[in-house]
Each structure stands twice: as structure tokens, then as C-alpha cells.
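name: query_chain
kind: protein
chains: 1
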Amino acid sequence: MGRYSGKTCRLIFMLALTVGFFVAELGAGYLGNSIALVSDSFNMLSDLISLCVGLSGGRIARRSRRGPRAPYGYSRAEAVGALSNAVFLTALCFTIFVEAILRLARPEPIDDAQLVLIVGSLGLAVNLVGLLVFQDWGSCFRSRPPAPPPTASTLSAVPGGAPVGPVDEAGAFRLHPRLASLSGLPLVSLTSPHPSHLYPTYTQHSVSSLNAGDSPNDQKSPEEGPERKTERKSEALNIRGVLLHVMGDALGSVVVVVAATIFHVLPLDDAPCNWQCYIDPSLTIIMVFIIMSSAFPLIKETSTILLQMVPKGVNMQLLTDRLARVPGVSSLHEVHVWELAGGKNIATLHIKCQTPTDYQDAAYKIRKVFHDAGIHSVTIQPEYIDHKTSQLLCSSPCISKACDSQLCCSQRKPPLAKTNGYAEKN
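structure:
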């Protein structure tokens, strides 16, 4: 085997082909006076950038080790790359849209319809090759058998209300196992593998009871049940971003071919502009709307991850209701659920208990509630009731009252605050 894998060689081939046809389409578009071909050339440029961003995002995402400057690793690199792809394409579409509107106001014929038709047809062929290449990559990671999800540590109580949290066996968050590689490099899948409802459809597994002397690595991984195979197939957002660009460029090539064919079959010669002159900008506008209909959902999904909003499919009201009913929990507050990457949902919460023994008994049940909701990385901050204060007040304040406004929970007694869209429970 050589220096590069087969997938890397195909990626390099697509990069070289894209660069060549960007230059060819740009020159032919200006020579033939075709706004659709010029737009398609810039779309080809966006494909080139998206390929580079997709590859670099995959390389960064595989750096799973946490460090002083990256405590969660680089799992969100793909989300950033996908968002950059979608935003860049949106800006490009806006520029194309404005140019098409100007061409509708001042219609112009295509000067060299034959040249535009030939280059547009070759560009369409290039995009079809690109679609086949990326669909082949997609089939690779879709056909890979699912691996067990990463395990989280058990939770241990720390007297005095100190926060405790999950750490896996390697001391770092693992990469999502259900995604294959881009050009031979492991990536992180950024779409949630869990069903769209709160309760899982896979077979529940038995978890060892949580005792005071348990090792932090004693939790067993969930078993793979047959129902798990029915989960929706996971795709990496950066791959979706690349596919979005390639499909959008393919649509642009179709627009170029259609417009050039009309002018080639029905040439205007020296006749003034008629309905034919409006075909080129009109189809370009349609292409812009089609591309944007795919770009906006990608922007929304990646923004939801980066803004640490509640993951789709997690019913916070139902979840907190179940947590509040756990025996031994006097009250709970500051419940936060967010997605790190690859469907890896993370939860943090503060719970009030009467005694450390109550917390030990409740901690396992709380983790079971989160497990049923598809959340396996949980940090619980136990707090013990001080009869001088309300059950809602945080028992772990800052050492100075001046930083009270910076706390996640205040020592002052507020009304039931709303966090993540739900009311605190007591």
C-alpha cells in the first residue's frame, strides 16, 4: 500500500478535478455571457472549500484527547465545519440571487451557447462523479456494524456537596463508533443515534449497583439489542455539508445545460431578447431556493449543538418529573441537558438529599432515568439539606457573596426559575 488510502486518493482526485473545472467554467461563463455557468463555477469553488473543510474537520475531530485548552476534546470540529460550509453556501447563494435579479431586469442572451453547453455538460459529469464518490463513502459507514457506545463512569458521592462527574476508561470522551472514516481517518458522527422519543427502543441492560466502594470504571456498556438496528442511520454533519455542496453544484450544472440547450436549439442570432433570455436567470433563482432549502436545516441543526440547546427528542418536562419522583431526592435544580457531538448527550444537575446514604441510593436511580432518556454522561452535584435554608437554595455557593450573580444557582430565594424550558422541581 502507498502513502495514501484509496479514499484519500479519491479525495485528492476530486480536489484536482474540482479546481480544473472551476477555472474552465469561470472562463467559459464570462466568454459565453451565461450567469448560470458563472454561478456554477463559484458553486464549484464552494465545493472545493467544503472538501477541504470536511477533511480538516475529520482530522481535528479524531483528536479525542482532552487537554488544558480543550477539556472536551475536538468532537465539535465537524459541527463547526458543517456550519461554516452551510453559511458560506448561503452567502454565495445570496450573491447569485442578486445577480440573477439584475439579469431579469436587464435580460441578455447567451453569446456562445455551444461552448456553455459543452462545459456545462462536463461540469454535470464531474458532479455526478462526486456524488458517486461521496455516496460510496456513505455506504461504507452505513454498512459498518455498530459498536458498543462508550461507557461513562459511575458516580461517587463527595461529602460536602462537591461536584462529581463521569470519566471513561481512557480518561477522555471517545469518538462516536458508528461512523466510518473520511479518507481513512475516523470521524465523529454528529447526528443523534437515539430515537426521536424519550424512551429507548433497544433492550435495557443490567447495571451493577452503585455502592460507596465501587470503582469509577465499573459501569457496564449497554447491550446491543435487535431493536437498535431500526435506529435511523447516522451521518456526519461535515459529510452532509460536502454532499450539500456537491448536490447544489449538480443542480447548477443542470440549469446551465437546460439554458444552453434552449439557446442552442433556438438561436436568437440578431433578434432582440425574448422569453429565452429569461430562462437563464429564472432557473438560477430556482436553483438558489432549492439549495437554501437544504442549507437552512443544516445551519439550524449545527447551531443547536453549538448553542448547547436541549437535544431533539429529549422531553425536559417529562424527564424532570421522573427525576423529582426518585426516592431520596428532596428537591432538584439546575438540570441541564445538551449534546456534545455524535448523539453524546450530557446532563448536569443539583439534587438535595437528607443524608449521604440517601444520595447513594438515589444516584443509581437518577442515572437510570437519564439512561432511559438516552443520556449516558451524567454529572450529579449532591447537596444536603440545611434546615436553616430552603430546599431550593444552592448549598455550594461561591466563597464571596460578590460573585452571587455569576453562580449557576443563587443563595437568594428566587421564585421557581425556568431553565432549559422547564420549571424547577421541589
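note: The two ends are 63 Å apart (CA to CA).
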